[in-house]
Amino acid sequence: MTDVDDDFAVLVKASNSPAGAPKDFGGGALERQSISEQVANRIMAMIKSGNLKSGDRLPTEAQMGIAFAISRPPLREALKALVLMGVLESRQGGRYTVTDLSPRRLIAPFNVMLSVADYDVDEHFEARAVVDLELVRFCVERATPDIRNRILRLARDGRAFHHDPVAFRLMDIEFHQSINAGANNALLSALAQGLYDVALDVRREASTVPGVIEKSVGQHCAVADAIVAGDAKAAVEAYRAHLEHVRDTTKQSMGQNYEGSANV
After folding, report:
1. Which of 3, 151, 157, 162 has the maximum number of C-beta atoms within 10 A of its C-beta?
2. Which CATH class is domain 105-262?
3. Domain boundaries in the chain?
4. Fold of 3-98
5. Can you say whether the dihedral through the CA atoms of 117, 119, 121, 122 is positive or negative?
6. Which residues form a coiled coil (predicted)?
7. pTM over the 0.70 mark
């Protein structure tokens, strides 16, 4: 029996006695109000405290139901919520396991939310500015020489793709991911990638407009030059100008699409 099963075995035993549950789980039967949320919060608390770690397998639903003194429906609701959050995964046999808890996995529900919500281009790029500009500043401070050189090489290589939107978009992904890597902050990088992926279909169309790629490449080079020079202020301002350019061309593309659909 694993340590996790031992913890729950203690809970199961305690739930059948007047003493109640161990302090690690908050004690006693759960209140009926927002019961599934309380269960999810208790499991999350076990993960935060180290009682549960990546790869640990939770006991059966029957054992957890006894431990928390609740029926199966609210327990399953709590477990499904934790699966959607990327905290747990259900494997063959019906047992739940704690995931690797990687930033990319945990940020996935956020990406889905952004994808299905009504898209607001200004709100999107305001969020990108908050996250991306901080990553650029960190990149200037923390990036290794190899990463700085890669950023510079990718920026300059973009000059060959002024008239090749597909190749440019591939290079663009690598350029931005290299800056994120240089910042050396996994959680911010995952957030940045999630925000980058929003409304890509609109930005694909914007990149086909003559002159858009050429301007983006020039801005990439300005950002890269400042990063290599260790000039955080210049890098941030160059990147801000780039975001504004992408925002504006996205708006233009959305406007053209709207007008086209209205004329159909």
Report:
1. 151
2. mainly alpha
3. 3-98, 105-262
4. Arc Repressor Mutant, subunit A (1.10.10)
5. negative
6. none
7. no
**Mean per-residue pLDDT over the chain, rounded:** 81
Question: Please, which residues have CB within 8 angstroms of residue 152's CB and are 6 or more apart in sequence?
Answer: 224, 225, 227, 228
> CA separation (Å) from 5 to 56, 95, 130?
9, 12, 43
Number of other residues whose CB lies within 10 A of the CB of residue 136: 26
Distance CA 155, CA 218 (A): 8
H/E run at residue 166: helix 165-183
Q: What's the token pair of residue 107?
A: 């940020």
**pLDDT at position 193, please?**
85
83 Cβ contact partners less than 8 Å away, ≥ 6 residues apart: 89, 90, 96
Task: Quote the pLDDT of residue 35.
Answer: 85
* Mean predicted confidence (pLDDT) in 144-166: 96
* Residues 189 and 135 sit within 8 Å (Cβ to Cβ): yes
Give the side-chain half-sphere CA count within 13 A for 255: 6
Alpha-carbon gap, residue 208 to 45, rounded angstroms: 49
Q: What residue type is assigned to position 65 of the chain? A: G
Q: Tell me the CA end-to-end span of the chain in Å, nearest whole number.
A: 66
Where do the H-state alpha helices sit in the chain? 3-15, 35-49, 61-68, 72-84, 103-116, 121-142, 145-157, 165-183, 186-197, 200-206, 212-229, 232-262
Query: Which positions ≥6 away from 230 have C-beta within 8 Å?
Result: 140
Q: What number is the average pLDDT over the span 115-123? A: 72
Residues 182 and 223 sit within 8 Å (Cβ to Cβ): no
What is the pLDDT confidence band of residue 37, given thresholds at 50, 70 and 90?
confident
Single-letter residue type at 162: H
Upper half-sphere CA count for residue 227 (Cβ side, 13 Å): 38
Task: Name the DSSP class of 31.
Answer: P
